[in-house]
Amino acid sequence: MKLYDFTLAPNPRRVRIFLAEKGVEVPMEQVNTREGAQFQPEFLAVNARGTVPTLVLDDGTVLTESVAICRYFEETHPEPSLFGRTATQRAVIENWNRRAEIEGMTSVSDALRNTLPMFAERGLVGAPDGVPQIAALAERGKAMLERWLGHLDARLATTRFLAGETFSIADITAYISFETAKRLEYEVSANYPNVVRWLGEIAARPSSSA
Amino acid sequence: MKLYDFTLAPNPRRVRIFLAEKGVEVPMEQVNTREGAQFQPEFLAVNARGTVPTLVLDDGTVLTESVAICRYFEETHPEPSLFGRTATQRAVIENWNRRAEIEGMTSVSDALRNTLPMFAERGLVGAPDGVPQIAALAERGKAMLERWLGHLDARLATTRFLAGETFSIADITAYISFETAKRLEYEVSANYPNVVRWLGEIAARPSSSA
After folding, report:
1. A-B contacts at Cβ under 8 angstroms
2. Distance from B109 to chain A by nearest Cα, in Å?
3. Is residue B51 assigned to a domain?
4. How far apart are the first and last CA of chain A?
5. Where in the sequence is the domain holding A105, given as residue range(s)?
6. Quick check: A88 and B151 CB within 8 A?
7. Domain boundary among B47, B76, B105
8. What is the secondary structure of A135-155 as a DSSP string?
9. How confident is the model at residue B123 (pLDDT cuts 50, 70, 90)?
10. Nearest-CA residue of chain B relative to A58?
11. How far are the Cα atoms of B28, B91, B111, B207 from residue B172, in angstroms, in the given order?
């Protein structure tokens, strides 16, 4: 088994935090996406989209999606559960993980990739031959991030974590979206006190340094 | 339990096909998104983003994401399995379902919502107060759809279904993306023979009429 990782990229960090919460260690290889290593022939032969994280299992199975990689480890290392145990818990965690992706990560990614000079011809992840930036999409991403903060703050007024009283993968996804937003010099404002409370709690977990 | 549905919208159809494959019947209520019913106060009180499908469980739990709704029914009605049984199967299905969403559904949705006059101020789903269309994003969506077809055709040259030899939720997601693309008068070309073969097989299943 090998996990292709890059310490400075947000999606690989989602997996590293997940593994830290599980106490699982996996052999890793760095793919420096700031130097274009993900678009070299050796790595494209593993993952044609050139994205990290990528997990290769011993039987040759290749997983290219962060949550699919996490699900593999949830199945093989069930404790502590980060995807839920009952039908309702599993559905609620899936629901909030997806909202954290669709409303949170996508908004931040749209804003970041269509703004920063380092992504000038890489407005979309997973496109080895390049995609131009779209300025209007960056603006839309910023507006959608504020909307997400409103929804998230209302949710966290009633629950300790995104999916209820127990930490889950949904918290990892949402946390990483705000960590990523720092690259836009964006800080969550005091207008969202429940999000600020929750961010402090997640940042205090040992896994957050992964 | 109640499932808020709309027969003409793509994401509710993903859930209806999933339920048809399971042989499960659920009480449904139509929310006519072409007449703006999803943005009426009664429905926004259930789901503040105004999206369908939405499932409300008997205990009041609200699920607003198609795959979270499907996962609930997978847990409560395990046969036939559409999310996989072993750790590797579950991870591979998650992987291809996500690729079908990220590379397929998102590409089609970007193209459709930023092109059709009926979405003039609704360039993004789940935004009750409106989002302008971005013409460049529609073009990017069309380009990304071709890229996805290349990846999918290569995959389906080696497997019967997206995630292997067994039909799964990943096939439903990918099928619906191409069904939705028909609204752009888009048909999958013979340049992708494996996709054409697979599309015919999915369309022949009784569930496809759901």
Report:
1. 107
2. 13
3. yes
4. 19
5. 87-209
6. no
7. B76
8. HHHHHHHHHHHHHHHHHHHHH
9. confident
10. B88
11. 20, 17, 20, 10
Taking the C-alpha atoms of A88, A92, A94 and A97 in order, what is their torsion angle to the nearest 10 degrees? -160
CA distance B108 to B35: 22
Enter the tokens of residue B208.
């496809």
Is B72 in contact with A88 (Cβ distance < 8 A)? yes
Which two three-digit tokens encode residue B98? 């996500």
What CATH number does residue A143 fall under? 1.20.1050.10
Same domain, B66 and B159: no
Is A24 among the domain residues? yes
pLDDT band at B130; cut points 50, 70, 90: confident
Asked if residue B19 and residue B123 are part of one domain, the reply reads no
pTM value? 0.96
Verify that B119 and B200 share a domain, yes or no. yes
DSSP A128: T
Helix (H) or strand (E) holding B108: helix B106-113
In a domain, B81, yes or no: no
In chain A, the number of structural domains is 2
A129: distance to nearest CA of chain B, Å?
11
